[in-house]
Amino acid sequence: MIKALFSEILKLKKVRINKLLWIIPLLTGLIAFLVGGVIIFSPFAIYWWESVFLYLLIGLLFLMDFNMEKKAGNFQNVKYNLWSFQIYLAKIFLIFIRVAISSLFFIILVIVLNKFFSGYTELLLSKSILSIFLLLLSVFWNIPWLYFLANFINGYLLIAVNTLVCLLFGSIISQTQWWFAFPYSYHYKISQYLLGVQPSGIFKIINLQLFDVMSPVLLSLLISLLLIYFTRWGKSND
């Protein structure tokens, strides 16, 4: 696993798409400012991040890796290799780490600009970082999900559909009692409970229980383990 991880890190050293780790958070902040203005900048920025740009970033990082492997002998490095499963795990882990770095940059940017704008919504650094970490865990399932679906769907179409499903359906279903059955709604629950940002983009503090916060995280991790298990099963039976 360590060898596979270092091998994947070496592949990413000169990849230009890594610039997206700071470009996309800046773009999110700009759109939130242009659409929502100064007063509701913070909740709007978080709303746009979770509804569009977070899933878009995951999709673009996946697509970059997918295209690299396709050019490098049509996936021969990962399909016909004794270490194929370890390579897949390394890929999933590195996408998660890069999204985490980008998310941390995003939340610090929002907090700094919120102080500058002196908006009425106050975000605490410690609470915001915790929220971003739990939010990341709640979307972790999407990374192995993309690798699974890429066996059946064109990569470009896949990231477009993946992002649109989150935007068009995730926020709506997250406001219903059936949110637990739709993984695209999980991350909306985290920012709703911990940061007070509702799936509609409105800021409203609500009372919460520990179970409310942890249930979408646990569901995401469970789905992730199932997807990774089936990937392992598939690799062992190639």
Automatic annotation (TrEMBL):
Q: Which domain of life is it from?
A: Bacteria
TM ranges are 20-40, 46-66, 87-117, 129-149, 156-180, 213-231
| The keyword Glycoprotein is annotated on this UniProt entry | no
Q: Which UniProt keywords apply?
A: Membrane, Transmembrane, Transmembrane helix
Recorded protein name is Lantibiotic ABC transporter permease
